[in-house]
Amino acid sequence: xxxxxxxxxxHNRFDAAVRRALPALVGLLLALGALLRLRQYAGGRSxxxxxxxVALNLATRGFIGLLHPLxxxxxxxxxxxxxxxxxxxxxxxxxxxxxxxxLVCGMALLPVAWAAARRLLEPWAAVCNVLxxxxxxxxxxxxxEVKPYIGDALSSxxxxxxxxxxxEAPADARRWGWLAAGGVVALLGSIPAxxxxxxxxxxxxxxxxxxxxxxxxxxxxxxxxxxxxxxxAIYVVVYRPxxxxxxxxxxxxxxxxxxxxxxxxxIWDEAxxxxxxxxxxxxxxxxxxxxxxxxxALLGIGAAHTARRQGLARAALLVTPLLLxxxxxxxxxxxxxxxxxxFAVPLLALLLLEGISAFDLPRVPALRVVGAAALFGxxxxxxxxxxxxxxxxxxxxxxxxxxxxxxxxxxPVMVIGDAAKSWVYYTVDWTRPDSARLTWPQRLGRPLYGSxxxxxAARLPSKQRPLGTRWQIEExxxxxxxxxxxxxxxxxxxxxxxxDSLLEGIAKVGGSVRQEAVAPGAQLxxxxxxxxxxxxxxxxxxxxxxxxxxxxx
Length: 553
Hints:
The protein has 24 helices and seven strands. The protein is α/β, with parallel strands linked by helices. The chain has two domains: 370 residues, no CATH class; 155 residues, no CATH class. Helix 10 packs antiparallel against helix 12. The N terminus is likely disordered.
């Protein structure tokens, strides 16, 4: 109130208006986030390679078996695996059953993130926070992926809320109980939860109301000890073999931070990748460099403003997990990859909006909303529209295999490399699954290719090696020997030059492609090595070497 006129000052009028509209605005944004996730879920895209790896582990193990190291160089927290096992026992090993748990986590993230944001941000910024997370393409994608990454984000947001409640009332024993139990659940359900809990532990120690009260301090230390014991046990039993795996070290080698002259550029590049994936999906080139610079500046300002406005404890909650993840990368224990930093997206959104809030303009407070809209609006609205208009597709194996089934003949199918997983998943009879067939990709190994029919296996060159004429002719002849007189070649999660080279090899030994089905990330070709008569040709296919393309959605 203005003491002289009794009128509400503009700043207060603006905040009052936002507060009155909060229930409607938040409800609308929660509905929008649910709509985007349900749209992707209903779109029913095919499982891609990593999802198939998880699915085949679930198909061949029970609850106890999932406690052991997973096949196909996979790793996932036990609670995620058990939740998936339960969902698939109820609904079968369908795509929708497998993606049900990530969908629930993705939809639950939004109200939980709102509960955290309204404790840390001004009302308008808390609403913007829900918008960022609702429309973020990275979060929408992982809400429909059979991987634990969206659960990581939910775990981060949930631990923020529980920790903030404990900081608000350190004398409340029940809140300490929730904090201890929540941390244990988080460790069982999320790999990067260890970073988040370290931030919570530091925040507890930094909070004056806890540090200066003996009972509260003892509770904080006991809670930290419980978390440390649980994390140590999980790491030794489950995660250490994967972290020290030679394959994983080679696979992620280029994604670890190195302390050398390239460090600043690496951090810039990885920050750009993460911010682009989460908040600026359609900004490229110079524009992305600009928003990366603005974003990093806002993150620093947001951390400083949080510390000044709400104390070091709350700043530590948001910043410590990010710094520890970077430190783990330096130690070659945590790669810098956007999907592995999904856990940090709720923290980044809070810091970005706190950074915008730091520009306090009492005469025109709405300018901060305008600034937030200018920074995020166009990119996220474009992303939201595209996500509504059409589901994102990656490796569409199912429609390609369905096209094959419509023209199935008694001919061998050459399953190339990592395509073995999708071939098995989409051709197995799930009413009576054959356990030997389910484990075929694991026995086949990588990077081999094998035949679903006559035995055939050949070692494929690595992606870095040239595919020469000798290799082309050798592999063309191998396929020719098992063709009867035709064979199908199925590719998924493939390296394009290898596909082209193998098809050229078939041509060099006198073969030709008569039919093909092509979809994003998957291809199927029928190669024949002698003239197909009109009587032998499938309906609609001309004999004599012509090719018919069966376009799949």
